[in-house]
């Protein structure tokens, strides 16, 4: 059969189309591979400081003071270590000169996109304020404060209720009280200075207005509270916040009078 010019033109166009498709496929494949590698690198990077520091994680049974001297020798901004039972939240806490410093620095002070768990710069690093705010990035695979997502499930929230914050001189025992989704600029939830009882009543009112779930005894102005905050997928400025009350301090003889019982793994 005689092949016309139109045949060769069509054949050439087919080859061009197939070639372009192959290039697009290879580019997509390469991009997907890079995205996976980049994601792994970020997750691995978020654990680098932890791998170095976990050897000196405070142990209440042995007393935290010695280990904290080692941690603070690595970075004097280290002020605590938080553990939320039955989650991946098990990290050193740092405090910077502002709330931007540790958004992209690990707990050793090195540049790291996953940042650190950090205490609001206006809070007392000795955790003596009535209300304190801890912040951390929402990372994949539950890293950093990514596992706060677990508390958005009401069953998990109701059954997994305990945690600890280790300090150089004592351990604070936490009990979860409320889970919220709020705006990043909420003037109550992210305010750390509450000077009198009437102001703290306004904070409690806001917590219960915004709460998706609550549990346990209702919070009062006598409770010392810690808020754990991270980004939420609900919106650009949406934040998940877990409100905890401090029910006991290992350095006090009587604590709050409430009983701390670690929840079983659910």
TrEMBL record:
Reply yes or no: does the keyword Phosphoprotein apply: no
Which Pfam families does the annotation name?
Answer: Sortase
Identify the CDD domains for this entry.
Answer: Sortase_B
**Active site annotation, chain numbering:** 137, 231
Keyword annotations of the record? Hydrolase, Membrane, Transmembrane, Transmembrane helix
Task: Give the superkingdom in one word.
Answer: Bacteria
The molecular function GO annotations come to: hydrolase activity
Read off the InterPro entries from this record: Sortase (IPR005754), Sortase_dom-sf (IPR023365), SrtB (IPR009835)
Which residue spans traverse the membrane? 15-37
The protein depicted here goes by the name Sortase, SrtB family
Organism in which the protein naturally occurs: Dorea formicigenerans ATCC 27755
């Amino acid at each position: 059969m005689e092949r016309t010019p139109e045949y060769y033109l069509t054949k050439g166009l087919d080859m061009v189309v197939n070639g372009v498709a192959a290039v697009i496929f290879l580019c997509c494949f390469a991009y997907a591979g890079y995205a996976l590698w980049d994601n792994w690198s970020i997750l691995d990077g978020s654990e680098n400081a932890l791998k170095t520091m976990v050897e000196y994680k405070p142990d209440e049974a042995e007393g935290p003071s010695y280990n904290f001297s080692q941690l603070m020798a690595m970075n004097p901004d280290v002020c605590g270590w938080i553990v939320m039972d039955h989650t991946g939240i098990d990290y050193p806490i740092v405090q910077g000169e502002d709330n931007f410093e540790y958004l992209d620095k690990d707990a050793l002070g090195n540049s790291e996109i996953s940042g650190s768990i950090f205490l609001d710069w206006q809070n007392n690093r000795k955790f003596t304020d009535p209300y304190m705010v801890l912040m951390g990035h929402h990372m994949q695979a539950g890293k950093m404060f990514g596992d706060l997502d677990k508390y958005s499930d009401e069953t998990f929230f109701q059954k997994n209720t305990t945690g600890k914050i280790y300090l150089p001189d004592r351990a604070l025992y936490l009990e979860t009280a409320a889970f919220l989704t709020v705006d990043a600029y909420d003037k109550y939830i992210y305010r750390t200075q509450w000077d009198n009882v009437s102001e703290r009543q306004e904070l409690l009112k806001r917590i219960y207005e915004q709460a998706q779930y609550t549990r346990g005894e209702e919070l009062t102005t006598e409770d010392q509270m810690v808020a754990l905050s991270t980004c939420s997928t609900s919106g650009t400025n949406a934040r998940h916040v877990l409100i905890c009350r401090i029910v006991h301090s290992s350095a006090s003889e009587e604590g709050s009078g409430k009983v701390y019982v670690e929840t079983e793994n659910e």
